[in-house]
Amino acid sequence: MTDLTDLGIAAIRDGVAAGTFSAREVADSFIASVEQGRALNAWLVETPEHAIAAAEAADRARTQGELLPLSGVPLGIKDLFATKGVETTAASAILKGFKPEYESTITSKLFGAGAGMLGKLNMDQFAMGSSNETSAFGNVISPWRRNDGGNAALAPGGSSGGSSTAVAARMAPGVTGTDTGGSIRQPAAFTGISGIKPTYGRCSRWGVVAFASSLDQAGPMARDVRDCAIMLEAMSGFDPKDATSLDLDVPQWEKGLSGDLKGKRIGIPKEYRVDNMPPEIEALWQQGIQFVKDAGAEIVEVSLPHTKYALPTYYIIAPAEASSNLARYDGVRYGLRDLPEGANLQEMYAATRADGFGAEVKRRIMIGTYVLSAGFYDAYYTKAQKVRALIARDFDQAWEKCDLLLTPTAPSAAFALGEKSADPIAMYLNDVFTVPSSLAGLPAMSVPAGLDAQGLPLGLQIIGKALDEQGVLNASLAIEERAGFTARPGKWW
Ligand code: GLN
Predict the structure, then answer these.
(1) 177 lines ligand 1 (CB under 6 A)
(2) What is residue 1's predicted lDDT score, i.e. its pLDDT?
(3) Which of 227, 360, 396, 419 is the most exposed place for a label (fewest CB within 10 A)?
């Protein structure tokens, strides 16, 4: 029999339904893979008992003819999602020991659809980062290695780096991610997997540890486009507990999948041709253009003139919102409390936050507090909000000429751990292609499309109009079908 960890979500679902294997066998295979992969540090908590209970329920449901959409599918959950009774830290020391009394809407939907949980996934602390190096519990190591004979440990991308690694290393067939400025798409691109950030408001934020509330969106990461569509259907839907949740029916994205792009106009934004972009990424982009043309699409040049302001705008708005959201971690309500001898309340707050937050989180809180301060609010925060509106308008104007946009996902392949961690600006620049669609709240997906000269995966990004996840999935599928990306990391761990 094939190794069950080679199967994706659709294959597991169908195989369990057909009785080719049991859900319990699937769960056991992935649990063993999680144990074998511990050197990658992708998991903060392992919950084999949860995956086994869901698998046994799936096997019973099968005999009773009551299978659910995700019966038998074990998943990994990013540690940003509150899971009832299971430690949830957002990879920060300040939340160490925090076991939520409640289940996030997304995880309860996934479990309600029959999925089990293999564990909680490591990530950049509070989802701030692009390499997973800001975790308080050690970085994740990508399962990929360059083919240069060296053994440089590579970044799995961030902030959903545990998530990307779990899928790429065959420790889970699918995982949840969250994306505030690229944290689903960039790690997916770095590890040769697929991931979609839906339209802002599709997936409930309730029970997801808040980073920048006007940008945060959950989404799936999995081996291919179909698997992402299946998971996204289970995760989406109106939630009265989230004031920004969209009160709309969830389309049947899996049923609607088609790689035929006849009649679709795909825009190529000229501003995404950035300085110092490796020629391989430019070549991949050209290849992607050919793929979508072969699928029947018409290519149009478009302009998104405010693209160059997207990063500075994001790195004002996201820290501003973070500084406000993270005010709640004060040693009173959650996790860590540092109470030095004789300290008063103020000193307890200060000691707890000084100890509990990592350096990147402190940097964001300081930037955020600065841009929101009375003297600088208009110069930075108000200005950034205005530019955000212009960036969104760029997209609206592009939609007059095209239906979807095609761009690279990131300006580089995975970099080595430590390579950018001393230079926050270099790290922030890695988000150049993912941040604009986040600021505009648009759906966007990364699909693996090729390898660079060092044998590392590269991703292409499809951005769509608000609510056009179907268009995004379909164009991504057209690329997937033509790219024939089958590379996977050799198992060295
Ligand atoms: N890398 C970006 C940041 O550090 C995006 C993070 C995210 O999407 N959560 O803010």
Answers:
(1) no
(2) 53
(3) 396
Contact (Cβ atoms closer than 8 angstroms) between residue 135 and residue 368: no
Q: How many CB atoms within 10 Å of residue 147? A: 13
pLDDT at site 277: 86
Q: At what angle do helices 9-18 and 48-63 cross, to 10 degrees?
A: 40
Measure the CA–CA gap between 276 and 171, rounded to whole angstroms: 35
65 phi, psi to nearest 5 deg: 65, 35
Cα 128 to ligand 1 centroid, rounded to whole Å: 5
Annotated domain spans of the chain: 4-260
Residue of 221, 218, 181 whose CA lies nearest to 203: 218
d(C-alpha 365, C-alpha 354), whole Å: 12
- 214-228 as b/e: b if 16+ CB within 10 A: bbbbbbbbbbbbbbb
Which residues, including other chains, have CB under 8 Å from residue 260's CB and lie 6 or more apart? Answer: 295, 296, 474, 478
Residues 330-382: tens digit of each pLDDT: 999 888 999 989 999 999 999 999 999 999 999 999 999 999 999 999 999 99
- The phi, psi pair for 114, rounded to 5°, reads 105, -10
Q: How many CB atoms lie within 10 A of CB 201?
A: 21
Q: How confident is the model at residue 38 (pLDDT cuts 50, 70, 90)?
A: very high
How far apart (Å, rounded) are the C-alpha atoms in residues 155 and 41? 12
**What is the pairing mode between strands 298-302 and 265-269?**
parallel
4-260: what fold?
A: Amidase signature (AS) enzymes (3.90.1300)
Asked if 325 contacts 211 with a C-beta cutoff of 8 angstroms, the reply is yes
Q: How far is the CA of 179 from the centre of ligand 1 (A)?
A: 7
Residue 95 CB–ligand 1 contact under 6 Å: no
Ligand 1: atom nearest CA of 158 is: 1
Q: Which of 224, 162, 172, 231 is nearest to 203 (CA)?
A: 231
Q: What is the pLDDT of residues 265-280, one digit of tens each?
A: 999 999 999 888 899 9
Phi then psi for residue 309, to 5 deg, are -95, -5
DSSP assigned state of 131? S
Q: Count of CB atoms within 10 A of residue 90's CB?
A: 30
* Token output for 459: 């991703």
- Asked whether 180 lines ligand 1 (CB < 6 A), one says yes
Q: Rounded to two decimals, what is the model's pTM? A: 0.98
